[in-house]
Protein: Tetratricopeptide repeat protein
Amino acid sequence: MSRASALYDLGVQCRELGQYARAETLLRQALALTSGNSPRDLALVADASNDLAILFKHTGRYDEAAALYRRALTISRRVLGSDHPRIAGLYHNLGGLEHARGSLAPAERFARRSVAIRERALGPDVVDVARDKAALAAILTDAGRHDEAAELLADALRVFERTPDCESHEAGVVWHTLAAVHNRSGRPDDAESAYLHALDVKTAALGPDHPNLAVTLNNLALLYHRGGRHERAKATYRRCLDLLAARTGEPEHPVWRTCTSNYARLLTELGQPAETRSRLGPQDGCSDDDLPDGVAAE
Structure:
């Protein structure tokens, strides 16, 4: 194994553990050491660019992520052609990035391309296609197309339930999105159950302190907040913020900004002193909406 490949593998491991600063250093080093034009070198550049883009998307550096995803897509098309499952994975990731930016129309286009390419290559009943359908469902949920989203989520869950490792992070993301569908359809009790199950599944897959739990914690806290369960909302917001502060080191992280603002609003409603709220820092990301979750294609 080359040094660049070893650095890449270690960078991916650190990213998956939520060790984002270390992962960025390793992935940049892998890219710097890969300068050839052989198929192997080009594949490594595409893979490292994709993984670095995933990291940047998780930490809110969306423009950098977009440039790296497109670099990976250009290289991968040249090496693999336009209909390879790896191309579908990059469309999946671009869709997730546009979704995070709130650009639903391009997000849906990318997500549908991902589903179409992967279904043609692999058939409809594999985990990768289920993951693509779940990502598309999350986009449709935010677009208010709840029935279509629920149908896609049911398809995805059937695949996960037939898969030996169905208690995976991917399954947790499906449950998170299903909770959002329930919530926006006026079923808060079903939403709470689904968010709690999503947390259980994601915690089992990632551990209790992984930053990818934060988006589900924020949405669960917001559900409690809306339902007048203020003490439970406070505890859940705090858990979300503590987790992000400890693991990402990024006060500009989009989930951090949203959760901070939602928590500050709750404290205001409860008459908490201004100095208590001021310790939370900038509060410009307030959102009445559930945050989307997503799994990047590796």
